[in-house]
C-alpha cells in the first residue's frame, strides 16, 4: 500500500529555475512528515503540486489514495491546506471566513455555522470572531487560516510553515491541536523552518534542497548521520585554551575545534556522562578554570547545516571555478 | 510501485449545475459583504457617473447637434442612454481589481484547493459587481430624472420597454465584468487591473454613439462606431426609451439594436467567461 501522501519524481520548472528536480515522498497513513529545507528549496512548490494548485511537469502524486493529476477534484474533497501566507478575506469577520470555507466544502449553511463556532473556540478566536480580520494580528490571522484548513477534518492535511509568526504559547497550542489531529488518524505534511518543531511533531523528516530530497529518516536517524556526541568546554581564561585543548585531545575521538573569541572548545567523544566527569577531573587537576562544560548531542540544526551547508558549498566552488575561467 | 496504481475512485459531487449555482452564490455573498464594508468604493462608483450626467448636460447641452437639432433638452434626452451604458461598463475595472486582489492575497489559492465548482469564484465576483451596477443605475436614473431626462420624449414607450432597456444595460455590464475577470486573472497587481481595466474603455465608449451623433464622424470612424458592440446597446436603449438622436444608419446593429445588443453581450459573455475560467484553472499566483 502506498502512503496517504505519495509522490514520485516530481519535477517543476519555472522559466530557467528548476524548483523541483525529482521529489519522492511516501507518508504512511496517520503519520506526520516534516519537510525541512532552506529558503527556495522547493517546499512550497512541493505542497502546491500535491494540493492540485500546480501541475508538475512530470512525475506522479497520489493523495488519500487518489491520483492528483487524474482526479484533482476528488483530491480537493479529501485535503485541507494552510498555505505559507494566511489566505483569509480581510473584510470578512473570522466567523464569516470560516462559514464561507465550510459552505465551499459543500457543508449546509447551518452545519458550516456550527463548525465555525467550534473552530473559533478551539483556536482562541471567539472574542474576535465578529471583527473583520483586517483588525487581527498576524498570529491571529495565521490561526484563522489554520482553522480554515481544518473545517472538514480532512484525512490528509498540508501545512506550509504553520507556526511561522506565532508566539511560543500559540505555537505550543497549535502543536497540541496537530497531535490531536494525528492521533485521530489524520496524515499531515508540514513544512517548517523550526527544526525543534519537526523534532517534536514529525515521525519522519525529509530534508529538501535544490528541489530534491537529500536525506530522509526519523530525527534520530538523521542526527546519527551527522555524528555522535561532543564535549563543549568554555574556559575562563584565554591563556588556558591551549592547555584545555591538550586535555580534550586525550579524550577526543577526532579533531578539537576552537572558537577563540568565545574561549570555546568542542571535541567529538564517545562515553557519555562518565567521560564528562573524567574530563572535568582532569581539567581541575591541571588548574584550568572553566565557565561552562557540557555534553552536546547533535540537534536537527546541526543536521540541517551539515546537509544543506555542504551542498551550498559545493555549488559555490563550482561557481568560483566558473568565475576563474 | 504496482500497488500505487489502484487508486480510490471518488464519485463526482451530486449535481454539478446546482453545485455551481450554490458555490457562486456563496462567493457572491462574500463579495457583497466585502463591498458593504468598503462603502467609499460604492460612493466613488456613484460620483463619477453623476458628474458625467451633470457636466455633459450643462457643458455640451445646447452646442451639440442631435438629429439636426441643437436644443439642450434634446441633447439631455439623447445623452442618458450613453451615460448609463458607459457606467455599466465601468464594473469591468472593479471586477478586475477584485480578482487581482484575491490572487495577490493568496485567496485564489485557498479557493482552488477547495472542492468547489471551478467557475464559481469568478461568477460570484461578477454577480456581486452586477448587483452594485444595478444599484448605481437606480441612483443614476433618479439623478437623470432630476436634471430633466424623460422617457418617451421622442415617441411612445411603456414600462416593459423601459425595464427591457435596463435589462440590456445590466447584461452588457455583466458581459464586460468577464472581460475584467480575465484581466484580473492576467495581471499581477490590483492597481494594474484597475488601470488596464479602464484605459481601453475610453476608446470603446467614446468611439460610439454614446455622446455624439455618429453621422457627423469621418466615414471610417463612423463605421467603427456603428459596429461597436457598445453602440448597439446605446441605440437599443434610445429606441426603448423613445429618446431622440437614434442613428438612421443602414448598419445592421443600428437597424436591429435590441437583437444586436443581445447577441453582442452574450457573445462577449461566453468568450470571456471561457477564457477567464480556463485561466483560473491553471492560475499560478
Ligand atoms: N511562481 C513561480 N514563478 C517563478 N519561480 C518560482 C515560482 N514559485 C517558486 N519559484 C522558485 O522555485 C524555487 C522554490 O521555491 P519554493 O517557494 O518552493 O521554496 P521554499 O522551499 O518554499 O522556500 P521558503 O522557505 O522561502 O518558503 C525558488 O527558487 C523560487 O524562486
Ligand atoms: Mg515556502
From TrEMBL, chain A:
GO MF annotation list: ABC-type xenobiotic transporter activity; ATP binding; ATP hydrolysis activity
Pfam families: ABC_tran (PF00005), DrrA1-3_C (PF13732)
InterPro entries according to UniProt: AAA+_ATPase, ABC_transporter-like_ATP-bd, ABC_transporter-like_CS, ABC_transporter_ATP-binding, DrrA, DrrA1/2-like_C, P-loop_NTPase
UniProt protein name: ABC-type xenobiotic transporter
GO cellular component, one term: plasma membrane
SMART domains, A to Z: AAA
Entry keyword set: Antibiotic resistance, ATP-binding, Cell membrane, Membrane, Nucleotide-binding, Translocase, Transport
Lineage: Bacteria, Bacillati, Actinomycetota, Actinomycetes, Kitasatosporales
Similarity comment text for this entry: Belongs to the ABC transporter superfamily. Drug exporter-1 (DrugE1) (TC 3.A.1.105) family.
GO biological process, one term: doxorubicin transport
Location in the cell: Cell membrane
Keyword set includes Cell membrane: yes
Domain ABC transporter: 5-235
Membrane topology of the entry: Peripheral membrane protein
EC number from the UniProt entry: 7.6.2.2
Signal peptide: none
UniProtKB/TrEMBL annotation, chain B:
Intracellular or extracellular location(s): Cell membrane
PANTHER family assigned to the protein according to its UniProt record, in alphabetical order: DOXORUBICIN RESISTANCE ABC TRANSPORTER PERMEASE PROTEIN DRRB (PTHR43077:SF8), TRANSPORT PERMEASE YVFS-RELATED (PTHR43077)
Keyword tags: Antibiotic resistance, Cell membrane, Membrane, Transmembrane, Transmembrane helix, Transport
Pfam families linked: ABC2_membrane
Record's protein name: Transport permease protein
Membrane topology: Multi-pass membrane protein
Keyword ATP-binding part of the UniProt annotation: no
Main location: membrane
InterPro entries assigned to the protein according to its UniProt record, in alphabetical order: ABC2_TM, ABC2_TM_bact-type, ABC_2_transport, T7SS_ABC-Transporter
Chain ranges passing through the membrane: 42-66, 78-100, 134-151, 163-185, 192-212, 258-276
Family as reported in the entry's similarity comment: Belongs to the ABC-2 integral membrane protein family.
ABC transmembrane type-2 domain span: 40-283
Gene Ontology MF term list: ABC-type transporter activity
Cellular component annotations (GO), alphabetically ordered: ATP-binding cassette (ABC) transporter complex
